[in-house]
């Protein structure tokens, strides 16, 4: 079954031990033999001859030919205004560290660990220690300067600001210091595609490009070339050998406080999952998901949609014109459950995987094959309409999502398992867990970002001004509430602005799911209670909701979650939603004015 779906990346090796031995034997020689390694100043040494010959646009073009994003990147996804077509986007540099880390104090432990990581990888690849140290410092300083000219996350919630269409020719004129047309054509040449001057390009962050020239002018040619060289090296060698894996682990130890390195078999499995997720997903569904489960979830979705329509009707702060648009959007919202209905047959999977020809015992070559096939498929998306049947998660993923541009909610089979869902759980537990998640995803269609897209997934303002003011006022209550929480482990306050969409969805999802559960069980006798627990079904509902967000963390991981996550940490997802829930307060007899039943509560939906 595994080999049949193209999983020969690991199946072709007689044993993991032999596979590992072969990796060590081949080492990084394939990378060192590339022209990109041979022109990397860090490996050449102090006497790099390219300082006077360096041409930024020549070098940029060469790296785009091997799909290395340099000082900027291109990506392809649906057009914001017309989601029936794909569009090319020009965006900021893709840096190794999140912007939030790079703008810290220069002697921050995270930055020092990253600098050490760059230095040690360069030394392993053959650089002189002194040269590697100076070049790593200079490249990190450049990345810090690039991070400073990027838009902060708090300013990225308005998609109307992102929609800045232009043409390839206009980009060449407006940013003449960058030969963007040449770079894009180089990138698309990978798939033997051409791009003409009239090709529309969307620029989400024009301010970055307005400020980039000054950063380039203040940076040495050697550092610019090294910036590209480090990016290429990190992609190509990754964690191939045990020494490289150890360097990766040393970095993660600082970032996440982890104490053990990931076993190689898990690394291999993760790489296989990244490419062959369809075949693995089919096998997961065959073993762990039933049509009865799909029918149950379908019914839950219908119940939650009906309840959310009631919540819209009850929103006295919304006028009829805006409500009419909201009803249309809710009615048009589609759902996908468990697994794709298309492209999931044996024959279709064989067709999708036929280009992935694996070489036994050659991990480097196999990674190259997988990478280039993925890049070609991505580029070709530009010339085809978006696939409405496409999933953006694997069937085994323990997650769910709402797509603004497709106006759909998606629940892979992986999350339709205990403790989120089980057909034999009482309704109180299923509605408290997966029911809340279903409600959460529905509400995403009407949060601070989702509300800006209409029923067809088009970026369009369908709100009357006074109704939008009402929405923003209610959202501000959520922002203030969560912004006043402090994560004691991270020793940081939460960012209520950045997390507002998820918090609005949590609160609305919990409210809607509880109401749907009560409507489902109205007039029925309560089912049997769980043995050993003196809890009512209403209490079980909220316990089931809270249980799914239980987690254990390290301080470094907590800092990473608060700094970079779009969700607040799990305990605050619980506290924040329950503090705003009169239903929870009644179920657990919380005194009004107590911490879990405050006098003042927030509610958007």
From TrEMBL:
Give an example GO molecular function: metalloendopeptidase activity
Q: Which UniProt keywords apply?
A: Hydrolase, Metal-binding, Metalloprotease, Protease, Zinc
The residues covered by the Peptidase M13 N-terminal domain are: 18-340
Q: Does the keyword Transcription apply?
A: no
PANTHER family xref list: PHOSPHATE-REGULATING NEUTRAL ENDOPEPTIDASE PHEX, ZINC METALLOPROTEASE FAMILY M13 NEPRILYSIN-RELATED
Q: Does the keyword Zinc apply?
A: yes
List the lineage, top down.
Answer: Eukaryota, Metazoa, Spiralia, Lophotrochozoa, Mollusca
Query: What PROSITE patterns does UniProt report for this protein, alphabetically?
Result: NEPRILYSIN
Q: Which residues form a coiled coil?
A: none
Pfam families of this UniProt entry?
A: Peptidase_M13, Peptidase_M13_N
GO CC terms, sorted? plasma membrane
Q: What cofactor does this protein call for?
A: Zn(2+)
GO BP: protein processing
Peptidase M13 C-terminal domain segment(s) = 399-604
State the protein's name: Endothelin-converting enzyme 1
Q: Extract the SUPFAM superfamilies matched here.
A: Metalloproteases ('zincins'), catalytic domain
């Amino acid at each position: 079954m595994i080999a049949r779906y193209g999983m020969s990346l690991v199946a072709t090796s007689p044993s993991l031990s032999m596979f590992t031995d072969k990796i060590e034997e081949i080492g990084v020689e394939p990378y060192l033999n590339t022209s990109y390694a041979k022109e990397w100043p860090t490996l050449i040494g102090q006497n790099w001859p390219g300082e006077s010959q360096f041409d930024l646009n020549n070098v940029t073009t060469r790296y785009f030919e091997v799909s290395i994003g340099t000082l900027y990147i291109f990506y392809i996804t649906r057009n914001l205004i017309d989601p029936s077509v794909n569009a090319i986007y020009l965006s900021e540099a893709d840096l190794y560290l999140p912007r939030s880390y790079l703008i810290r104090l220069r002697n921050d432990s995270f930055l020092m660990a990253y600098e050490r990581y760059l230095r040690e990888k360069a030394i392993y690849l053959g650089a002189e220690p002194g040269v590697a140290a100076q070049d790593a410092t200079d490249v990190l300083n450049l990345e810090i300067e690039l991070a400073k000219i990027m838009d902060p996350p708090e300013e990225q919630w308005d998609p109307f600001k992102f929609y800045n269409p232009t043409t390839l020719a206009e980009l060449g004129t407006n940013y003449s210091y960058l030969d963007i047309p040449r770079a894009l054509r180089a990138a698309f040449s990978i798939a033997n595609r051409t791009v003409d001057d009239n090709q529309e390009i969307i620029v989400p962050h024009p301010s970055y490009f307005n400020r980039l020239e000054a950063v380039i002018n203040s940076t040495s040619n050697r550092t610019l070339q090294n910036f590209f060289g480090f990016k290429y090296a990190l992609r190509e060698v990754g964690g191939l050998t045990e020494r490289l894996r150890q360097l990766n682990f040393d970095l993660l130890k600082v970032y996440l406080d982890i104490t053990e390195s990931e076993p190689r078999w898990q690394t291999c499995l993760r790489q296989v999952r990244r490419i062959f997720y369809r075949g693995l997903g089919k096998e997961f569904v065959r073993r762990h998901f039933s049509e009865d489960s799909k029918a149950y979830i379908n019914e839950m979705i219908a119940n939650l949609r009906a309840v959310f329509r009631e919540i819209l009707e009850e929103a006295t702060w919304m006028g009829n014109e805006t409500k009419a648009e909201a009803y249309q959007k809710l009615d048009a919202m589609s759902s996908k459950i468990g697994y794709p209905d298309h492209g999931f047959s044996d024959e279709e999977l064989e067709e999708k995987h036929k280009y992935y020809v694996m070489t036994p015992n050659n991990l480097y070559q196999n990674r190259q094959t997988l990478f280039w096939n993925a890049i070609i498929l991505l580029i070709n998306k530009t010339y085809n309409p978006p696939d409405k049947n496409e999933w953006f998660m694997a069937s085994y993923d323990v997650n769910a999502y709402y797509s603004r541009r497709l106006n759909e909610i998606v629940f892979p089979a992986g999350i339709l398992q205990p403790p989120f869902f089980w057909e034999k759980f009482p309704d109180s537990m299923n509605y408290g867990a997966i029911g809340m998640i279903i409600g959460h995803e529905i509400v995403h269609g009407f949060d601070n970002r989702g509300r800006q897209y209409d029923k067809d997934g088009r970026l369009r303002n369908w709100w009357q001004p006074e109704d939008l003011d009402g929405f923003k006022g209610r959202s501000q209550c959520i922002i203030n509430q969560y912004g006043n929480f402090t994560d004691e482990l991270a020793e940081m306050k939460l960012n209520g602005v950045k997390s507002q969409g998820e918090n609005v969805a949590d609160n609305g999802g919990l409210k809607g799911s509880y109401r749907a559960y009560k409507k489902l069980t109205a007039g029925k006798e309560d089912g049997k209670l769980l043995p050993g627990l003196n809890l009512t079904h209403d209490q079980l509902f909220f316990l089931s909701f809270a249980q799914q967000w239980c987690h254990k963390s390290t301080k470094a991981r907590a800092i990473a979650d608060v700094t970079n996550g779009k969700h607040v940490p799990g305990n605050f997802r619980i506290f924040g939603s329950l503090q705003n829930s009169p239903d929870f307060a009644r179920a657990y007899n919380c005194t009004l004015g107590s911490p879990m039943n405050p006098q003042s509560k927030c509610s958007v939906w």
